[in-house]
Amino acid sequence: MEELKSRGRKREGRHRDTWDPFQLNPIGAEKEQTRHCFELAQYLVAVIVGLLVLASAVISKGTLLVLSTLSSPSSLRSPKQRQFYMLMLVLCLIFPNLLVFIKSLWKCAFKSFVKPNMKTLGLMCIIECLVSLGTSVLVLVVMPQFDVLTNLFISGGVCILSSVLQIVFRLQKESWKIIFPICSLILVLAGYFLLGIDYYVRVSSYMANQESDCFVYVGVGVFASLLVSLNWWENSLQASNSIQEMLTELEGFRDFVFVLTSILRTLIIAAVYFIYYKLFTNTIVWSDFYLGEDKESLKIGLIVFFMQAFFSAACHWFGVVACKIHAIRMSFALPVCSTGPAMLILGIILFITQADKLEGVDSTSIQDFCSSLVELSTKNTTPVVLLELTRSICRTSLNSPYLTWPFSLLALEGICMWLGFITSTYYVWKIKVQRIERTSQLFVRRLYESAFIDLSLLLNTKMKVVRARNQESNDDLENCVIYLCATMWHETYDEMLKILTSMFRLDRYRGDPKEEHKDVFDFECHIYVDDSFMIEKGTGKKLVNSYVNDLIHVVIEVYRVFTNKEPDDVSIIETPYGGRLMFVMPEGNMLYVHLKDKSLIRNKKRWSQIMYLYYLLGWKGYIVKNPQKITRQNNPCRASLISLDGESFLLPQYDNDSKRKHITDDNTYIMALDGDTDFQPKALILLVDRLRMYDNVGAACGRIHPTGMGPMVWYQKFEYAVGHWLQKTAEHVFGSVLCSPGCFSLFRGSALMDDNVLKRYTTTATKASEYVQYDQGEDRWLCTLLLQQGWRVEYNAASDAYTNSPQEFKEFYNQRRRWGPSTLANTLDLLHSGGETVKRNSSISRLYIFYQMFTVSSSILGPASVSLMIAGAFQFVFQIPGTLSIVISVIPPVFYMFVCFVAKPNLQISIAAIMSVLYAFLMTASFFSIIGDMVQQETFLTPTGLFLVSMTIMYLVTAILHPEEFSMIIYGLMYFICIPSGYLLLTIYSLVNMHIVSWGTRESSKEMEEKKMQSVLCDRNCKLCCWDVKIQVTQETDNLILQQMQNAISQKTQAVLSSSTYEEVLQIPQEGNKHHDARKEIHPSGKRCFSDNKLQHEDGDSASGYSRSDDSISKNVSTNSSLDNEDDNEDDDDTMTMFYDDTMQVETKLVPDSDWVEPVKTEFLKKLTYANMKRNLQEQIRYTLRNKNQEDVCEELVMMLTDTVNGELKDRVGPEDILSESKLEELQYALDEQARRILKTNRAERLERRVKRAIEKTLIAPQVEKLTEDETDFWIKLLERYLSPIVDDKAQKEVVTRELKSLRNKAVFLYFIVNVLWVVATFFLQAIGSDVISIKIPKFYPNGSQAEDYLKVEPLSLMFLLSFAVLLIIQFLAMLYHRIYTLIHVVSYRSSEKDYKEKNEEDDEGLILENQIANGLVITSDDL
């Protein structure tokens, strides 16, 4: 209700100024609110992860202590049992090495292999061997000799080397923090000293079961701890230049090092075990490894081993998760540091609560209690683990008959070791991680030490050390620049509203580009509009068409919604490719609208992409690297030198160019968008995270949601959901995503600029296969080029974008007619170059190539599989024999294939629609037939029934794991009944019509009608009885006389136009100069600026050259309507074979380029009306003073200046009248004087310049500018080299048409043969009979009992069913893995509301402007 009232108040305010106060308010335009529920969920996840880390660490450490106690020589267990428990202890040490070996071997075999440096490899092997030697000696030899409390405390000494290296290399960012490693070293040495004193007291006080050789084990334990501390040497030595170079080199072949060292570590562990227990103690009896009937010991040993192995790995993984979700203190450092105390407290609690279960103990004193434990060793009712741990505690000084005070030495030793460990890893508490970081950036080593899991996690956490000057640091996020590039082709008003709203949302999220933001990025928005101009009938003027007018209205409307005022800073620029509109968005970020003239530049999406890639990566990258080569602006009299908040800077459109001087191509991103994409800022930032985290990621895409209404949209909703849930996640996990859709994808600049990517992307299709691969699916081809160059493409499921999908059956079929062949062509291209791609791309393995081969094979066999499924429905529903049902099911697809070869595309689609409805009924019958078969068989455990049930459960679980998309499961039934249409009829339609290379979507009705009528010579409507007859005679008829007459008329007309054109070319320069003389720009200060006119006269040569260039381009464009099929006389554009149907016959009469400028400028001049000016002035004042803590002054200014405007204009002009130049000058003077008086009264003179600039911006008119000479030259050369409109002669068209049809015939033949072979094989198996060739499967009822008869299944059907099931299981497991890491990323994102540091600065005395040419030149306000 409050929201309704708020909107009502705003509307009433507008209604006081105009009779048209109504406006659109697109969904999502409201400000993002802080999501407290999300923050609560984030803290809840952090608490849960922290508890899991603590619990798993305690269990891991506890189980290791249990095994060391059970295998101790002083244990009450038998030698046979102790030997078994020692074996379990050995396996606990080996298990982490086994995991590392498997993962590293996988990466070496299927990812990448780099030949190692033998010197570095040798050094790593020596260090790993020493570490493994120390670990095995400490755990297998020393710890069984000590009591459980000493074993708990002694492991804290493994941090000693880390403390020493921190002191030596001065790794602290703040010098005073060196006290932490010094304290750690002192505390650890004190702990070792107290350990020696404690055992000296034990021996001297004649403790029971305390041998005098314990000092040897104490010394060996200290030495072993020193060896173990070598494990984390990289963490401390990373600041050294020489070591850093070696570590950088090591990253390339670290996987191979881990493969080799994990084997060496395992061998050393086994060698220490056998050498000590066979050669030294001779306690190994080979026959005792078989426990025989001792099931209890076997059970205890295996359970403890599996718990130790599992929870050690779980603790390591949860620790990584805690760091990645930004919960280092709460969920990582605190739980890990608390592991030792928690273990001690838990032991005391268990001892107190469970001691009463030890029946027969004497609790009068501690000595009597300990001595009575010996008698319990033979009782079966005694808990073995509790008994041994209790006896181990009795080995301490607590059980001394003479002195008990030495027990305090043991306690003090534990405190010293624990504090030494905490102070050594103090940096973990202050460590800062980015939103999402790789595990290798968080931890030094991939391997964890299961024997010291808590110390291993903290010591393995990478220090953020001070880097040397010649080293780069990845500790802080590098700034990046994002270019949002949307391509438009005949979008509707509502579709344009979506993309503009998304861009303005991002502008509000980012804030002022001069302010810092937590995500450290800057951005620009670029919209490229194809087919933007039209020739006005009658006058011959070139004007913008209705689509551009709609776009202008949308920009104004969205600007008004976000700011409650009109656009302030608008520039109109004439360019060699058409025109450009430039806007400063509300927060100061830039929006560019590029208007493409199809007579000057190529149309369609791929050429728009090439256009903005060369402009943003090529040209802008060139000028920031060579600023001295850029000449001065042709229009130095630009009126607006300020952003919306009043802070001054020179030409805001060059702000990002200035920042990009310090940004590498790796941190320059291109966001490819469609003209109807709707997204939130969060979606873009999540994609940026993926590219920031991995340097080899060249592109990343998000989750695309189709929007719209109707059955076709319902089908696509579930199709998109399944494709993203299973297929894209499997590609992401096992290899790389093959297609990053152009409607919402982020590309890395350096990846696009790589060899064989952008350069090859400019290739013009000349062969039939190139038309299919290059122009029908440009997004997939671009990704194929990236993959072949070694870049990775990723998928982020949390990055949501919404785009319109085809709602009509015809539009859907035409879209998929393009996508199907293109997908197949690009996948086959990737498979063909698979060997070379595997070598270059570390994300693509041979196993992944095999996976793609399997998926391609499944899609090729799709039509046959669907036909056989329909045959099964016939067989069950109508009781038709198997062979006959196969024959009947094959007839419709064969009939439809014949129709596609002989009929027009429109008729093909109409027949497909009818057949789709009939097939939907059959699929419904098939669904119920499967259910009926299960009822008839009295079990669902049949192959088909089991497959259906498991598929349903799997999709249901998948939908549950995507809670925000769970509703998509509703459309699953629609998807199921449309399978024949989508996988049978659509496949046939797309293959047979492969030679048609027009897009077939977004064709405006007006344009198609014009194309139809262009070839009509005669059009008559006649009535014959009750029939209406339409008669048309076209150019494509076989009437040769009419064709000859038409050609003769065309030749005469062309000759006449050519002669008149020459005379008009000579007259145009004078007319153009007169036109520019008449156009005068008004400066807010009252001065007129004739910069355009002056520069045009001074630069006459350049201007004339520009006109000649345009003329030459126009002359090079000839009539190129389409490649017609042989019988296209009754169809629209979709029935034509087209290469570039966007080209048109250029009007030979040249039109002045400036004709379109004035109407566009007039549209933006509406901001200077009386009604709009008041609202604009109010909002401009509020926005300018928003951070100055002057709310009272601000509101007084708004009220008084509004009264001034009313007083000056109320009775002189109407609310919709545009103010004249003289009125603007008078109004500006009055407003300046009124503002000066108000500010002087409130003693706020320091704000005067800000307020005056706000008044200037309110009164400024849209500017008409020219490009720089260098940029004009760039566009002319780019058009000549890559983007000039394509001219195809008739002979070339005929050749390519034949090639396309030949390619079509080959593809159809291949598909037909493969599917026929599959169907024929099944047919003959049916004909032979199930009794002869079949696989008998036992039949089970739901209660588990087995039936007497068997289920008979054909081998081929069972093989296909199992293969498909295996594929789905693989994709399901990949989805589970991907879901976990998506959750981690989402939690780490925290929130998506606007969050940047606002600077509340006072105005500087001098106005400092940055000159893009000469840095260091300072211009003060006096100079201005």
Explain what the structure shows.
58% of the residues lie in helices and 9% in strands. The protein is α/β, with parallel strands linked by helices. It starts with a helix and ends in a 27-residue tail after the last strand.
What tags apply to this protein structure?
1424 residues, alpha/beta, eleven-stranded mixed beta sheet, two-stranded antiparallel ribbon, 21 strands, globular, disordered C terminus
Helical stretch count? 50
Please state roughly what percent of the residues sit in beta strands, choosing from under 5%, 5-15%, 15-25%, 25-35%, 35-45% or over 45%.
Answer: 5-15%
Q: Tell me about the biggest sheet?
A: 11 strands, mixed
Q: What distance lies between the first and last C-alpha atoms, to the nearest angstrom?
A: 51 Å
Major sheet: arrangement of strands: 10-13-11-12-9-1-3-8-7-6-18
Globular, elongated, flat, extended or rod-shaped: what is the shape?
Answer: globular
Mean pLDDT equals: 77
Q: How much helical structure, as a percent, in the residues?
A: 55-70%
Instruction: Please mark out the parts with pLDDT under 50 across 5 or more consecutive residues, or reply none.
Output: 378-382, 466-473, 631-650, 1005-1015, 1024-1029, 1034-1046, 1048-1152, 1391-1424
Radius of gyration computed on alpha carbons: 39 Å
Structural class based on helices, strands and sheet pairing: alpha/beta
Quaternary state of the chains:
single chain
How many individual β-strands? Answer: 21
